[in-house]
Write a structure and sequence with these properties.
Layout lengths: L17 E5 L1 H4 L10 H6 L1 H7 L3 E4 L3 E2 L11 E5 L6 H13 L3 E6 L9 H9 L11 E3 L24 E3 L4 E4 L14 H16 L4 E4 L29 H13 L4 E4 L6 H6 L8 E2 L2 H4 L5 H15 L7 E3 L8 H4 L20 H17 L3 E5 L19 H5 L44 H5 L5 H11 L9 E2 L6 E5 L4 E6 L12 E5 L13 E6 L1
Parallel strand pairs: 1-2, 1-13, 2-5, 5-9, 9-10, 10-11, 12-13
Antiparallel strand pairs: 3-4, 6-8, 7-8, 14-15, 15-16, 16-18, 17-18
Helix pairs in contact: 6-7, 12-15
Family: Belongs to the glycosyl hydrolase 13 family.
Pfam families: Alpha-amylase
Protein name: Alpha-glucosidase
């Protein structure tokens, strides 16, 4: 193929980028069949350019049976027909680059779909075959092999189902997620070679980076010991041999000036930072900030801890308020518990959306003023709330694997509203979208918000455009009253966020650059409001 087209050359672009997460299935529907697709994304590229984002991160767009929202991949080199074709993906990458927008694809290395050719060959080959060595097949325990090989828990929080499935031939296979997602054996050289080839495949097509799903889960203790009685390192989380894998990946990426962002959920800051050493992943998602409650002391601690754990390895922090797995920010901040925990998700949680929206606007200015890169999940710029999905329309396996306790993740994946007066709020469908839209969805439509200078969309556009004024310097906290966060980045630029009950006096300044809401009659910053100031 010809020379790939890249966005403008800047090797350090990722250190301060605003990256927009596209969940293709719900972004825009180009062919009217109820499912978002690449044609829909291509048609909306001018919107994304006007929003001002630097890159697009696409959740998996590969061939998939969609048993887990595309994270069950059957072919990493093919686009699922529901989304389009490989040629269309190449056009999308090139057209986005022409607008100065880079592309990041999602790689799912821990597992594949049970429809993947490797797994189908393993099933056909039978116990003890070389084909099964690419996965984790084991005989069961008990007199007749009727018990699973070990006690490992599912990675779906709240799931009561086992992570082993028994086949008619007696073998069991491991799947930390659904049975349709068999785990790969990363001790096998063919698995490592295949993924390096897949990375090259997409870098050759012009992608600028790769997001690594479940990055800390790939390596397994070859003995597959019981978790409850195992005295050593965790048998499948954050194992030391992972770092050799990512060092080899880094060598591939460096040949293309490509970058990585890892999904690394780890409570240990020092262990987390190891993944971001100069010869491994470039960045990692910051889940402590994402899950942090709307509380001034805890937010400051999350920010300080994040910056401190990145400093020794020289990696930039990442800031994110929401993604395709997490309750939307407007809804979360409007609840009594404003943090996020998968285990705490429940149906019918009372929510004050007006309060949540006010806080989400302030959080937008806070996150965009912090040093590092920012990830913006589609629809957050519209202030979309978490949708209540009727039980008979829920598709997420988290709901089913928790026996209906966890409402699942569909509520943050509802198709976007584009035009208020069109069917299905202009998502593009001639038939109902794959997930139902709430009746008030048109009120959040892009066309309405574009005409409203006070809308969430207008706030995000202004903030992203003005963000460079903060420069690339470190964060310095300023003295502030209890409940108020105030810091500088570049000389003369200050961000202030008031989480206290009473209005706060603003630091001395010459110009109010931007505020998440109006000041009070005396020029003070109301509760749950943020401002950017120039001295």
């Amino acid at each position: 193929m010809g020379q790939p087209t890249h966005a403008p050359k800047d090797r350090d672009w990722w250190r301060s980028a605003v990256i927009y997460q596209v969940y293709v299935r719900s972004f825009a529907d180009g062919d009217g069949d109820g499912t978002g697709d690449l044609a829909g994304v291509r048609a909306r590229l001018p919107y994304l350019a006007e929003l001002g984002v630097d890159a697009l991160w696409f959740t998996p767009w590969y061939l998939s049976p969609m048993k887990d929202g595309g994270y069950d991949v059957a072919d990493y080199r093919a686009i699922d027909p529901a989304f389009g074709t490989l040629a269309e993906a190449e056009k999308l990458i090139a057209e986005a680059a022409g607008l100065g927008i880079r592309t990041i694809v999602d790689i799912v290395p821990n597992h594949v779909s049970d429809r993947h050719p490797w797994f189908r060959a393993a099933l056909a080959a039978g116990p003890g075959s070389p084909e099964r060595e690419l996965f984790h097949f084991r005989p069961g325990r008990g007199p007749h092999g009727e018990l699973p090989p070990n006690d490992w828990p599912s990675q779906f929080v709240g799931s009561t189902e086992p992570v082993w499935t028994r086949l008619p031939d007696g073998d069991w296979y491991l799947h930390l997620f659904t049975p349709e997602q068999p785990d790969l054996n990363w001790a096998h050289p063919a698995v490592r070679q295949e993924h390096e080839d897949v990375l090259r495949f997409w870098f050759e097509r012009g992608v600028a980076g790769v997001r690594v799903d479940s990055a800390a889960l790939l390596a397994k203790d070859p003995a597959l010991p019981d978790l409850a009685t195992h005295p050593g390192p965790h048998p499948f989380v954050d194992r030391d041999e992972l770092h050799d894998i990512y060092r080899s990946w880094r060598r591939v990426a460096d040949a293309y000036d490509g970058v990585f962002v890892g999904e690394v959920w780890l409570p240990d800051a020092e262990r987390f930072a190891r993944y971001l050493r100069p010869d491994e992943l470039h960045t990692g998602f910051n889940f402590s900030f994402l899950s942090c409650p709307w509380d001034p002391a805890r937010l400051r601690t999350a920010i300080d801890t994040t910056l401190a754990e990145h400093a020794p390895v020289g990696a930039p922090a990442t800031w994110v308020l929401c993604n395709h797995d997490v309750t939307r920010t407007v809804t979360r901040y409007g609840r009594a518990d404003t943090g996020f925990d998968f285990a705490a998700k429940a149906f019918g949680t009372p929510t004050d959306l007006a309060l949540g929206t006010r806080r989400a606007r302030a959080a937008a200015l806070l996150s965009l003023a912090l040093p590092g890169s920012v990830y913006l999940y589609q629809g957050e710029e519209l202030g979309l709330p978490e949708a209540e999905i009727p039980v008979d329309r829920i598709q997420d396996p988290m709901y089913f694997r928790s026996n209906g306790v966890d409402p699942g993740r569909d509520g943050c994946r509802v198709p976007l509203p584009w035009v208020a007066g069109m069917p299905y709020a202009g998502f593009g469908s001639q038939q109902e979208p794959w997930l139902p839209q709430p009746v008030d969805w048109p009120s959040y439509a892009v066309d309405r918000q574009q005409r409203n200078a006070d809308s969430m969309l207008s706030l995000y556009r202004e903030a992203i455009a003005a963000r460079p004024v903060f420069g690339d310097g470190p964060l310095t906290w300023l003295p502030a009253p209890d409940g108020v966060l105030a810091f500088t980045r570049a000389e003369g630029m200050t961000c202030v966020v008031n989480l206290a009950p009473a209005p706060a006096e603003l630091p001395e300044h010459s110009h109010l650059l931007l505020a998440s809401g109006p000041l009070d009659d005396t020029g003070r910053l109301p509760q749950d409001t943020a401002a950017w100031l120039r001295s």
